Amino acid sequence: xxxxxxxxxxxxRKVIQKEELFILDVRNxxxxxxxxxxxxNFSYLNVPYFDxxxxxxxxxxxxxxxxxILVVCAKEGSSVMVAExxxxxxxxxxxxxxxxKAWSEYMEPVKVGDLSxxxxxxxxxxxxxxxxxxxxxxxxEAAIIDPTRMTEVFTGFxxxxxxxxxxxxxxxxxxxxxxxxxxxxxxxxxKYWLPPKDAGEVVFDYQPLEDGEEIKIGHTxxxxxxxxxxxxxxxxxxxxxxxxxxxTGDILFIDSIGRPDLAxxxxxxxGDLRETLYHRYRELSDExxxxxxxxxxxxxxxDDGTVAEKLGKLFADNHGLNIESEAEFRKMVTENLPPQPNxxxxxxxxxxxxxxxxxxxxxxxxxxxxxxxxx
Length: 375
Prior knowledge:
This protein is α/β, with parallel strands linked by helices. It has eleven helices and 20 strands. It has helices spanning about 10-15, 30-35, 75-90, 100-105, 150-160, 180-190, 265-280, 310-315, 325-335, 345-350, 360-365; strands at about 5, 20-25, 40-45, 70, 95, 110-115, 120-125, 130-140, 140-145, 165-170, 190-195, 205-210, 215, 225-230, 235-240, 245-250, 255-260, 290, 310, 375. It has a seven-stranded mixed beta sheet with strand order 6-7-8-9-10-11-12, covered by helices on one side. α3 (about 75-90) links the parallel β4 (about 70) and β5. The termini are far apart.
């Protein structure tokens, strides 16, 4: 039998379309338990590569005969060798091209919807990390919100659409991934916006994103309204786009809420977080469609691949929005926290402009799952 490579783009479609897939992950057990490829209809077997060097005979009876099989490792090499051994045993198998390293960086652009008076809103879904970025397009102009360091995805997409990038914005100073805003601003000449309360230690120029700011995209009525919404960081800012979409950054997710501790100030910021979620957002229309900067679990993906839900439904269903006791809320978001993101302090320093790691170091810093939420 033969074996072949599967690209991250193909794997992404399988995730979005909820297809069945059997993954043989040959990384160490601890790496697999910490972070794996998620799919609603995926099943898994984790056997470290070193246990398979002498042959794959011991796992043959654990492999399905009625499902597609994908072998996964960190960077590709080990999965190629295991896939080859399996093919020699008569099994039709694929390996993930570029391994988890490539999966971590792949982004799938998905159209969220049309805007009033022309224009579109796109969501870029980074399935391997749970990161979400956005592009607002109108009259041949574009604004990019919370872009990752894989800037060519955004600039290339803008070129495909024939639009000029006029603005790039960060909802806050990110701690789990390296922002691409400065690189995009430098490449395109776009104006770079950042909440000033998150910019106290940055060493580069930016446009202060103040509460109530309006940013025009194109020649239509599309505006991005900055809504100061602290809690995840002291400067966290949400955007209401076209009076239809609420981009919440890392404050509010579909099935969880933002954590306030990534700058080491959980006790100081938990009150801001509750004020934003329980008061500022309550003043907004229930019909606004929430578009967060991350998702936590694969079930948050809609059938079309988007991560989006009406604000009113989140107030009804999201546990983090329904804790009446302030003491209980404080306990949940300060004591019941998942592990912090890998290298989050280094990432914050990089996003401040204080560190300039090379590309390989940046990849290493970002490896691992999204950990910006509590639920």
